[in-house]
């Protein structure tokens, strides 16, 4: 059942205007039931008398205008969002740069570890060239080179190559020279401070390794 848009009486059958979408009974529509059925597929394009005469504005026209207004509103909102998101492009590029830089961190860490290991190896090599002289009383005008030379003379060992003296550490330029020096001290079998003319007690020569002379 439907209510006729013209006579406002309920009916069971009648055409619907394709323009205003109003429902009419056959008597008010201006078309017979038989004539309407003969339209076949054209039933979907049938228009009432008001729409045919143009007296009644089509609701589709107002609907289309409403859709246009909504589209304009959506377009305006989209433009605002696009404007607000403009800085995001620069932010994305910054993130890409940071990400690219972060990929270099493992390589930098590996390089630091390599240099640390190289430094440790060098220190170990340098330590292998050293001996430690201990127990020598500190004098006001002492000369470390003379002390080392005095000990070398005591061992009958000639220091042909240049040696570097750091307080009580004697650093030879090669481990070979250091081993020869230590061997000379072992042959002498005298490492007492008294052997050098000092009143202090104890031995004066020791390797920088765990072995003590």
Walk me through what this model shows.
This protein is α+β, with helices and mostly antiparallel strands. Among the domains are: 56 residues, Herpes Virus-1 (2-Layer Sandwich), CATH 3.30.40.10; 80 residues, no CATH class. 51% of the residues lie in helices and 8% in strands. It has seven helices and six strands, in the order E-E-H-H-H-H-H-E-H-E-E-H-E. The strands form two sheets. It has a four-stranded antiparallel beta sheet. A two-stranded antiparallel ribbon has the order 1-2. A hairpin with a 2-residue loop joins strand 4 and strand 5. This is Zinc finger PHD-type domain-containing protein.
Quick structural summary:
The protein has helices at 26-29, 33-38, 49-53, 59-102, 105-128, 144-154, 175-188; strands spanning 2-3, 10-11, 130-133, 164-166, 169-171, 205-207. It is an alpha+beta fold and 213 residues long. The strands form two sheets. A four-stranded antiparallel sheet has the order 4-5-3-6. A two-stranded antiparallel ribbon has the order 1-2.
Strand order of the largest sheet: 4-5-3-6
Nearest-angstrom radius of gyration? 54 Å
**Number of helices in the DSSP assignment:** 7
Total number of strands: 6
Rough shape?
rod-shaped
Low-confidence stretches: none
From N to C, what is the helix and strand string? Answer: EEHHHHHEHEEHE
Q: Give the mean pLDDT.
A: 76
Structural class: alpha+beta
Largest sheet: 4 strands, antiparallel
| End-to-end Cα distance | 121 Å
The amount of beta strand, in percent, is: 5-15%
Helix content: 40-55%
